[in-house]
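tool=predict chain=A
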Amino acid sequence: MTEGWHRLSGWSVLYFIFRFLRQLVANIFALIPAIYGITRIENVQIGIAIGVASAFVVTLYAVMQYLYFRYQVTDDAILVREGVFFRKQVNLGFERIQNLSLDRPFYFRPLSLITLKADGTGSTGEEVNLAALSEPEATRIHDHIRTAREIASASVHAEDANETGVVTEGGEAFLIDRELGHLVLHGLTNNRAWIALAAIGACFGQFADPLRDYVAGLGIDFSAMLVDATITMFIVLAVSALVLSIIIVTSLSILGSIFAYYGYELTGSRTRLTVQRGLLNHRTTYMKKSRVQASHYQQDWLDRVFGRLNLVFEQVSHQATNELDSNSRLVVPSVTMPQANHLTQEIVSVDDPATYDYQGVSLRLLARNLAITLMVCTSLVMGLHIADIGPLSALPIPFSLWVGLLQYYQWKRLGITVEGNLAIVRKGTIGIHYTVIELHKLQFVRLSQTPFMRRSQLSSLVLTVASRTLVVPFLAQQFAEAVRDYGLYQAEARERSWM
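tool=predict ok
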């Protein structure tokens, strides 16, 4: 497609600077001693000199990355040479591209520049980022890759003439969008603020003394307030602190949801799904339907209160992760169950997962979990009693009752059903999670037993696809063996690619 090796636009230096800063933030814990040391420097001129020198080094390194970066797009692959101290070349064939996206970072928007990202299905290092491309060039490369992949794919068919929905540009049908209210609800029900709070908590120990001095300078003495406080005032202060922390965490979570999913729009054709989202960094992501390994209905307890869930389409995952916002996942936030069912049918022919009959797990699983809880509770009560802490010795009892109730709901909801080429696993406590996989995409099937399970004719069924591993413990051995054999038969007899 392009003859010879090409250099990126000079504006790509901005991309390399921000990439370096993101790497620093990702390793913030290792930098805490250096940051603390810099803040303790009393000479302002030395501090400014260190800041200027750091900015110069980062900029120089970004310029060197730009100078050593070359790319070439052939008829069937993207080739990239990069590296300042350690040179490497990535040859990413079109057939190995899993995620293809066009990103518009906030620092490129005024310049109408785009970063084209292509992630491979191999290791985490098999990825290509072509930064600061003009929109026509980025679109040309993207369309070339898409066309080449469709021609090479044996599963390519004409667009379905009966496809429903509002047709948008490119022949894709509008599926769903998420307005601001949906994103606020998603932020309320899915906490995205714990990482930021954890970093703040780790830094607090280093900055505790300067913070206390600053508060004392304002004339606030919390120690005196606590010493003189009555029980009522102490309770009020504790409740106020709890409410304030909840407000802060919720606000950060809502902001995180808005930044990640603002302007969300999902469209689809016969062969792929397309998502556009992002407030500061506007991202367009393409996911080939045949590469979806699992459709996951993720509903936490607060999601169930509002009658919502997150629908997640999972591709090949390089590593296990529970994060919603991952390159290997396409997330549709805060949807209702009927909406989730309609979108899932874009990938597989499945009815409402809640309407199926599920094979439950043995009561022995619940008995085992309750026995462990009872042992822990008894140990805590005895320990507090021996320590002569009378008022607190009864606290483990109501806590254990609550844990036991959750274990009961967890046992009651755990189950699996098999229908045609599909297997659906149900899990959850208050919220309910459903995971839908196609059996012909199975990578690994295993039955495991402990000596006690063997005596009771029970087995744990392990089903692995390229995006996750599903474990259903304490199934009747005969049923587990039937599912294993049927799954292996589907994987072998259908002769369909899992990609």
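The CA atoms of residues 105 and 281 lie 4 Å apart. The first helix runs from residue 12 to 26.
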